[in-house]
Amino acid sequence: MSEPTTLRTVLATSPLSAPIKHGELSSPHATFEFVDVSPVHKAFAPMVRDQSFDISELAIVTGLQAIAYGQPILLLPAVVASRFQRGCLITRRTGGVTTPEGLVGKRVGVRAYTQTTGMWVRAHLTEDYGLATDSMHWVTRDAAHVKQYQDPAFVEHSDDDRSLVDLLREGVIDAAILGNDLPKDKEFVPIIADAVARDRAWYDQHGFVPINHVVSVSTAVAERDPSAIQAIYRLLLQSNARLQSTSDTPSPYAFGYETLREPVEYVIDACVEQGLLPRRLSIDEVFGPAQDILDGTAE
User: Fold this and answer.
1) Is 20 exposed, middle or buried (0-12, 13-18, 19+ CB in 10 A)?
2) What string of DSSP letters covers 16-48?
3) Multiple choice CATH, 5-83+210-294, 3.40.190.10, 3.40.50.720, 3.40.50.300, 3.40.50.150
4) Which residues 6+ apart lie within 8 Å of 189 measured at CB?
5) Were both Cys, which of 32, 58, 110, 222 would link to 216 (CB 3.0–4.6 Å)?
6) pLDDT digits (tens, 9 = 90+) for 136-156
């Protein structure tokens, strides 16, 4: 029997990934050299530009852009991070934007225009309040992970070395979208006051939690050793099965082509409306290459 393939892998530590990273779940077909990249979004550009890893967690927007621009990666039907997003849009408690409708014509800061959290907040603003993306002025810090993508004309790249929180505090921007770095300071408040209730109502309507990150694979590795790609997918499925409970809290993880078809189509539609994709992708373009490799293990 040949030695199992060793794959350089980036997965943020979570209840889903921990059993694999700690060796509680393993496969005879592959071993994994886990590379610690923190925060995990710093792995995204090296993955899509240079395939610096064999397997990497990847923001869904970055993954869709990589496919649209022909980068040699494929996406597995595996969501490894999701969250509700409306509470990520904040303003100053004093002198800030008081309603979502008040954002029209305002300056909104976000780490990158392509950041998935930003995409979701903009999608919610459009769905809930009818706000067009280009009715606001977007102020960003980082360029897209996919080099070929260029921000729309209504997006400004700022070289200011102050943080988004400081820019908001000092009135340089009127609102900001932040994710894991959302400040706890009482001087900031969410713009969508009933964010939690709206998020739950949206989930009840659509049936999924907004997708943040999926799993990407280098095309070269997938072609060279498809059994290793099948192995990581099966391990993720096994880990997810161990996490299932009777709780009514929606899971941040999701797997399978049919399970992800409508959620990913929603993301594609939002990306097209926001100018994040050069064209509308089909679901077969997104998951077809992985479906050929996984061959029945995806449901």
Assistant:
1) buried
2) TTHHHHTTSS-BTTEEEEE---SSGGGGHHHHH
3) 3.40.190.10
4) 90, 91, 92, 93, 96
5) 58
6) 999 999 999 999 999 999 999
The tally of CA atoms less than 13 A away on the side-chain side of residue 234 is 17
CB atoms closer than 10 angstroms to residue 242: 12
User: Tens digit of pLDDT for each residue in 212-267?
Assistant: 999 999 999 999 999 999 999 999 999 999 997 656 789 999 999 999 999 999 99
pLDDT of residue 3: 77
Q: Most distant CA pair in the chain: distance in Å? A: 68
Report how far Cα 133 is from the mean position of its chain's Cα atoms: 19
Are the beta carbons of 67 and 286 closer than 8 angstroms?
yes
- What CATH code is assigned to 86-205? 3.40.190.10
Amino acid at site 251: S
Taking residue 294's Cβ as centre, other Cβ atoms within 10 Å add up to 21
pTM for this predicted structure: 0.95
In the DSSP assignment, the letter for residue 100 is G
Query: What's the order of all strands across the beta sheet hosting 73-82?
Result: 30-34, 5-10, 55-59, 211-218, 73-82, 254-255
Domain ranges for the chain: 5-83+210-294, 86-205
